[in-house]
Amino acid sequence: MALIELGRFDEAIVAEKKALRQNPSFTPAYRCLASAFAHLGRDAEAREAAARVLEDDPAFTISEWTARGGQSNSKLLIEGLRKAGLVPPFRGGSPRDRFFQTRRHIGLLTVPSDT
């Protein structure tokens, strides 16, 4: 996370990928990857990492994460999470509904059109 706050996004990606090789279920690494990729304009990779965050924690929101002790002072990290599609929570519905709304928002879930 410190590398992101220093604007060293490429280095953050290397560090987080190394962390994931050691522990593939380390969710904080996916949050950092989503943010770093988003800052670098690597949108597809940012959305992939954001999707992994949501797989591990379907009810994830930035506000709830910071309230639980997340890095509320990490301005660049939070900005990157928003760019990656982990936007403020959708209103109403169950956590499952919000999960699917967020996945649709970041383009990882498409709804067939009525044609």
Helix content bin:
55-70%
The N- and C-terminal alpha carbons lie at a distance of 45 Å
Supply the helix-strand structural class: mainly alpha
Broad shape: globular
| Count of distinct structural domains | 1
Strand content: under 5%
CATH architecture descriptor = Alpha Horseshoe
| Unreliable runs | 111-115
The number of strands is: 0
Outline the secondary-structure elements.
Layout: H1 2-5, H2 9-22, H3 27-39, H4 43-56, H5 62-67, H6 75-83, H7 95-105
Structure description:
The protein has one domain: Serine Threonine Protein Phosphatase 5, Tetratricopeptide repeat (Alpha Horseshoe), CATH 1.25.40.10. Helices cover 62% and strands 0% of the residues. The protein has helices at residues 2-5, 9-22, 27-39, 43-56, 62-67, 75-83, 95-105. Helix 3 (27-39) runs antiparallel to helix 4 (43-56) and helix 3 (27-39) packs across helix 6 (75-83). It is globular, with a radius of gyration of 14 Å.
Short characterization:
The chain has seven helices and no strands. It has 115 residues and is mainly α.
Features:
single chain; 115 residues; Serine Threonine Protein Phosphatase 5, Tetratricopeptide repeat; 7 helices
